[in-house]
Every structure is written in C-alpha cells, then in structure tokens.
Specification:
Strand order of the largest sheet: 6-5-4-3-2-1-16
Distance between the termini: 5 Å
Order of helices and strands: EEEHEHHEHEEEEEEEHEHEHEE
Structural class: alpha/beta
Number of helices: 7
Number of domains: 1
CATH class: Alpha Beta
CATH superfamily: Ribonuclease Z/Hydroxyacylglutathione hydrolase-like
Largest sheet: 7 strands, mixed
Number of strands: 16
Helix content: 10-25%
Length: 230
C-alpha cells in the first residue's frame, strides 16, 4: 500500500486493487507542479470527495470524465458533481459503507462547512465528511477538513484506525497542537500523516509541534509525490 500526498488536502492511495484519489485539486494547487499531474492521476479507479470547497472539488467533474473514474461522497455533493458531468459512483451518507474492489470505504462526520460558489451565490452541499478506508490489513482515517470534535471518540473506538491522515494546518481546520491532542485523546494510531498545511502562508508550515506532541507515534511529514509505503 502506498499513500501519496498531492499537496494541500489531495491524496492518492494505492490500496488492494484500487487507486483512490481523495479531493484531487490540480488547477491552481501551488504544491503540485503541472509536469507531475499525469503521474498523480495515473491509473486512478475512483475519486472520493469530502466537501464542496473549491480546493477540494474544483477539478473533480473534469477529472472524473478524463479518467473514467466514478465519484463517491456525500449525497448532495455527488449529485451536484454528476450534474457538472462527473461519473456517478455512490451518493451515500454518514455511517454508510461502500466497497470498491477489495476496499471498504465508510463516510464519517467532520466539523467544518461544505459549499460551492455558483452564479454569484453560495450553495450548500450537504454535510462535510471524512473517510475510513480499510484494506491490506490497515484502517486509514482521513479526517477531511475538521476541527476537534466529540465524534472522534466513537470513530476511534469503533473503527480503531492505525493510520491517521489529519488536517492540521490551522485557521480553517485543526492546527498541529489540536491534531496532536485529538490523536492522543481519541485514537491509538501507529502512524500519523498531517495534511492541509504548507500550501499558503496562512497555514502552518511545519509539523514539528505534532511530532513533539506524539512521541510514541510515527509522524511522517509527507513530501509531494513521494510514496509512503506500508
């Protein structure tokens, strides 16, 4: 299994017989050079979306068509993206689980917001979400954009993820200190990977606070397009 950061909050996960793109943002993503776009997308089987903000879904409908990759996520958001031309995968909701080949994907709550800006108006896209992804003997928790929330208690207890991909850039989501607190209080991760940081000056630029806060956990600062193998 390989986990690959595409910059900001975009991930590529190669797991079992699937290549999952989570919130793939290419156009305007300052962390992913254009000459690496094709490699980032190669062989993608599915696109998962956490919420409707531009830095998560701006490219999704076009990429879905280009890659022939169905889109799965919150019901209202997928409905909108299908109207925009995306290939429909699953419109599901909190607590729901879908299968992609040998991979199980569950939708879990986040605490953020979810909207798009269309024709001069803000349009809400259902609830923001995170994902639990299970395969190859691992359980991955992708928080999506979120602050600390009480739901992390049951997510940690029920799914028992060993890998946490945590939004940790601050300002719009948890910062590194909050992510460390949440990881210690609610989870028993073996590996933590921060994301949604370093993209712009308003976000945190280093994960050192997270590393210092989790001395018994392997915290990996990802580098764009460098595979983290499990």
């Amino acid at each position: 299994m390989n986990i690959i950061w595409l910059g900001h909050a975009s991930m590529r996960i190669e797991i079992e017989d699937q290549v999952l793109l989570i919130d793939p943002w290419l156009t305007g993503n300052p962390m992913l050079p254009e000459d690496q776009h094709d490699a980032a997308l190669k062989g993608a089987t599915d696109i998962l979306v956490t919420h409707g903000h531009f830095d998560h879904v701006a490219d999704v409908a076009d990429l879905s068509q280009k890659l022939n990759a169905p889109v799965a996520g919150m019901y209202e958001l997928v409905e909108h993206l299908v109207d925009e031309g995306a290939i429909e995968g699953d419109r599901f909701n909190m607590g729901g689980t879908i299968k992609r080949g040998n991979v199980e994907i569950s939708l879990v709550p986040a605490s953020h917001s979810s909207s798009i800006f269309e024709n001069g108006n803000r349009k809400y896209m259902g609830s923001e979400a995170g994902f639990i992804i299970r395969g190859e003997g691992h359980c991955i928790y992708i928080t999506g954009d979120t602050g600390i929330m009480a739901d992390m208690d049951w997510i940690g207890d029920y799914y028992r993820p060993d890998i946490g991909i945590l939004s940790a850039g601050g300002h719009f989501t948890m910062g590194m200190a909050e992510a460390a607190y949440a990881a210690k209080r609610y989870f028993n991760f073996k590996t933590v990977i921060p994301y949604h940081y370093r993209t712009m000056p308003i976000l945190e630029q280093s994960a050192q606070v997270l590393i210092d806060g989790l001395p018994d956990v392997k915290v990996i600062e990802p580098e764009v397009m460098e595979a983290i193998a499990f």
